[in-house]
Structure formats: structure tokens, C-alpha cells
């Protein structure tokens, strides 16, 4: 499929990974997640490098992959506002560029989460990091996985965040919900994942880098 303007919602699904096993529910609980990061298995990330569509110097960035400790754990996600210069209107993790004042990727992810959604560090237990994911816009993104207290107090920045919501971790760690897309855009064939989730009122279309990092998290937990 060749498209002039990329609207990922309109690109057909080429396959869905129903043949792959879901992560066992026991692996998704807090102590199991802590143990997994304390003694990581041998595993291989699946999505690490998007095809470039922006020619600029690499930009270090970090995101928080926040797992909220509900009775059934969830992943906290944001909907970016439409006027932002990059990835506007997309679903993402809290995060952004690593500043010179940040000591490392963890510090950057925590600072950005505080700035974007008002998530304070005392509500966050950092577990570890996933491999760097390079976007087509030259962001070199370090995903920082953390457990989040359900007592968290959020105050989203309306300039950057249009919505904050949660998706069950078990849903995202089930490849029956991982959909593959392929299209030719700007003369280059591109492939990406999406995960479509319907909550009580809204259809959530998770795709691109966010979906790719979630898929890597699936591979880490399934290994």
C-alpha cells in the first residue's frame, strides 16, 4: 500500500500474532517483575530501529513505562496534544529529551513524568531499563520500567497532555492484540505494530514507538 500522508489508522493490518503465547499472569505481578529485572533472562529485543524520516543529529531521550499496581496491573499512558512539534496526537509513555542536568536516563524519565503528568518520585519504584529504541525522528529512547503506587496523584500538563489513561498490562502482553502494518511512505516501505484497546468510552490506538517498546517488554517477560 502506497500512501501520500501517513494516517496509521487507515493502513490495513497485515497479520495479528495470535499464534504467540501470552505472558503468564503470574509473571505480571509485582514480585515477579522485581525478580525478572533483578536476574534478567537471556532474551532479544524485536523492535529497536525505525527507518529514518528526519535527518538530524541523534537526540537522547527517556520514557517511563509505568506499571500501576492495581489488583490487576495496568500500564499508564498519555495522549499527546495535537500542537506538539513531534508525535502530536499520539499515545505515548511519559518522557522526553534527556537534559544536560539529568544524571542519566532514569533521572530524565522521572523528571519528564513529573513535568508531564505530575507523577512524583515517591510514587515510583524503578525496576530497570529496556534496550534503547531509535525512532525515525532520531530520538534514541531509553525505556525505564517502574512500578507505580495506585495512590499516585496526577496533574497533567494541558500543554503537552490531552489525556491520561490505563490499559491492563495483561492485554498489552498478549500478542493476540499485536497487529502488524506495512505501507510505503515517502518512497520507503515502513512496518510497525499497533495495539487497539477499547475502554469504557474510547478507542485507544497505540502504535509506532510505544507499541514497539511494549513488544520488546513482552519479549523480555516471555523469555
Name its key features:
223 residues; alpha+beta; Nucleoside Triphosphate Pyrophosphohydrolase; eight-stranded mixed beta sheet; four-stranded antiparallel beta sheet; 4 helices; globular
Describe the overall structure.
The strands form two sheets. Strands 2, 3, 4, 5, 6, 7, 8 and 9 form an eight-stranded mixed beta sheet that branches. The protein has a four-stranded antiparallel beta sheet with strand order 1-10-11-12. It has four helices and twelve strands. The protein has helices spanning 30-38, 105-117, 169-172, 208-222; strands at 13-16, 59-68, 74-80, 91-92, 95-97, 124-129, 133-134, 139-148, 161-168, 179-185, 188-198, 203-207. The mean pLDDT is 92. It has one domain (8-222): Nucleoside Triphosphate Pyrophosphohydrolase (Alpha-Beta Complex), CATH 3.90.79.
- Write down the overall mean pLDDT: 92
Helix content: 10-25%
Provide the CATH architecture.
Answer: Alpha-Beta Complex
Radius of gyration: 17 Å
What's the oligomerization state? Answer: single chain
The largest β sheet comes out as:
8 strands, mixed
Number of strands: 12
Number of domains: 1
Q: What is the approximate shape? A: globular
Distance between the termini: 34 Å
What is the strand content?
Answer: 25-35%
Helices and strands in order:
Blueprint: E1 13-16, H1 30-38, E2 59-68, E3 74-80, E4 91-92, E5 95-97, H2 105-117, E6 124-129, E7 133-134, E8 139-148, E9 161-168, H3 169-172, E10 179-185, E11 188-198, E12 203-207, H4 208-222
